[in-house]
Specification:
Length: 492
């Protein structure tokens, strides 16, 4: 009995051992509920004895080649004041891990598997221009293929320093670089290459959101090997992201209102120079332009390096408005209050009233002088009537004229040496003669002042036309120059 029991127990142990041996069919197998889970078995097989802190090469002389790729998804912000560019990119990198290799036939034809990033070796490739940590989502997994190729794909919000040139604002094109390199490993340990050809990388805009303020032109790549101490050499891959601003918003809200105000300033020159309406009109334009500059000051980019050309344009427009107002004040000063002014100098008459109209095709007579001419002719007629040479309508006036003629005749006799008439002159007639003489002097003085006023008015008119043409030429030349520059920058 004891021998039979022993044989029975031995047979049971042999059968149980055979069953356990048949259960282990694949390396890295698991027991329990994961007994038939191929991915779990594969994960355990790959992690068995894996050292993530060691570069995954069997021969330490072999360099790990990391292939990288970059796709710009969106331009989030361009801070001209702080010289910072914020972008959202899709970053891809891949490398060969010689320790993460398996035979797909042993694991149910599984050719790739996702593993936690924390469990595998990852190259220390960083962006040199990083200035802040962006809000990037955490991707905890990497893809591993059966031949050891590890693919690490993740989106990154990149906040980088960039030298922004705002001189051409709002027609500016910016070029910012993203430099990828290993922070510690030399080129003997880690080398960098591109996943795609530079041509494909440059023209790829498939994922870019093209509805914002900035337009992606292309992405240029440049591979470089550099050394810090001429001993250790490092590999770097630099991507140049070239973007262009869409200027429509700034053209409508900045340039067009300024152009309209300048056009209204030019139209204001057609107001009569002898009226005060032109001065008030130009002062109103100047105040309106000042308010406009205050409103748009927050829109213009501000840097400590330089001022954009559009800022210079606004300052020059303001200066032109001030010059226009100054010219208007001077012209109004010439054509008003001429009674207090001396006669026009001869050199002014020669240059302004004789030479300038011929050289610049300016009409000598103007409608503004017609009123003064009619008044002067009326004054001449009034003078003749007071001297007694014309027919008088009033009896008293004719009597005064006859007595004046008699007095003139006596003066003429005295001039010939003949004795004057002994007829005495009444005191009333002496008073009348004094009054008439005073009126005559007054009329002569007023006639002279009006002639001076007429000359100053002609000088003011000629100078107004001349300065208006100079101002118009300056504005047109300035506008053509800026328009040409902005057009070239827009096409480039």
């Amino acid at each position: 009995m004891r021998v039979a029991s022993a044989w029975t127990a031995l047979l049971f142990l042999l059968i149980q051992g055979a069953a356990r041996a048949c259960t282990v069919k694949k390396p890295g197998g698991s027991t329990g509920r994961f007994a038939n889970a191929t991915l779990v078995q594969l994960s355990e097989f790959l992690s068995a004895g894996y050292k993530k802190g060691v570069r995954p090469v069997k021969d330490w002389r072999t360099s790990t080649i990391v292939a990288i790729d970059l796709m710009v998804y969106s331009i989030l912000n361009v801070d001209e004041k702080n010289q910072v560019l914020t972008t959202y990119v899709w970053y891809r990198q891949s490398w060969k891990d010689e320790f993460l290799v398996w035979d797909p036939e042993d694991f149910d034809e599984v050719k790739q598997v996702s593993l936690p990033t924390a469990n595998v070796w990852v190259p220390d490739i960083l962006i040199n221009e990083f200035v802040d940590v962006g809000k990037s989502p955490d991707i905890p997994y990497v893809y591993v293929t059966h031949d050891g190729l590890v693919r690490n794909y993740k989106p990154i919000q990149v906040v980088t320093a960039c030298t922004l040139n705002i001189y051409n604002f709002p027609f500016d094109v910016q070029k910012c670089s993203l430099t990828f390199q290993s922070w510690l490993h030399t080129i003997d340990d880690i080398n960098i290459t591109l996943m795609r050809s530079p041509e494909e990388l440059s023209e790829d805009k498939s994922v870019f959101m093209n509805q914002g303020e900035w337009e992606l032109l292309h992405i240029l790549s440049n591979y470089k090997i550099f050394s810090v101490d001429n001993d250790d050499y490092y590999a770097e891959m630099k991507f140049h992201v070239v973007i262009r601003r869409r200027p429509l918003f700034y053209t409508v809200n900045l340039l067009l209102p300024s152009i309209f105000l300048m056009v209204m300033d030019i139209v204001g020159f057609y107001l009569p120079p002898d009226s005060g309406e032109r001065v008030s009109f130009k002062i109103t334009l100047l105040l309106g332009y000042s308010v406009f500059l205050i409103i748009v000051s927050d829109t213009l980019p501000a840097t400590a390096i330089g001022t954009p050309l559009i800022g210079v344009y606004f300052v020059v427009c303001m200066a032109l408005l001030v010059i226009s107002l100054t010219e208007t004040v001077l012209i109004v000063r010439l054509v008003h209050k001429q009674d207090l002014q001396p006669p026009v100098p001869h050199w002014v008459k020669y240059l302004v009233l004789e030479r300038a109209p011929v050289l610049f095709c300016i009409h000598k007579k103007h409608r503004l002088c017609s009123r003064l001419s009619s008044q002067a002719s009326d004054m001449e007629h009034y003078k003749d009537s007071n001297y007694g040479s014309a027919q008088c309508t009033l009896h008293h006036t004719c009597e005064i004229g006859q007595r004046l003629s008699h007095h003139d005749r006596e003066g003429g006799l005295l001039g010939l040496g003949l004795p004057p008439s002994r007829e005495p002159t009444p005191p009333v007639m002496d008073n009348i003669l004094q009054e008439v003489t005073a009126i005559r002097h007054f009329l002569e003085k007023r006639d002279k002042c009006r002639e001076v006023a007429k000359e100053w008015l002609q000088v003011g008119y000629v100078l107004d036309v001349l300065l208006f043409r100079v101002y118009l030429v300056a504005v047109v030349a300035y506008s053509i120059t800026l328009g040409t520059l902005w057009s070239v920058w827009q096409v480039a």
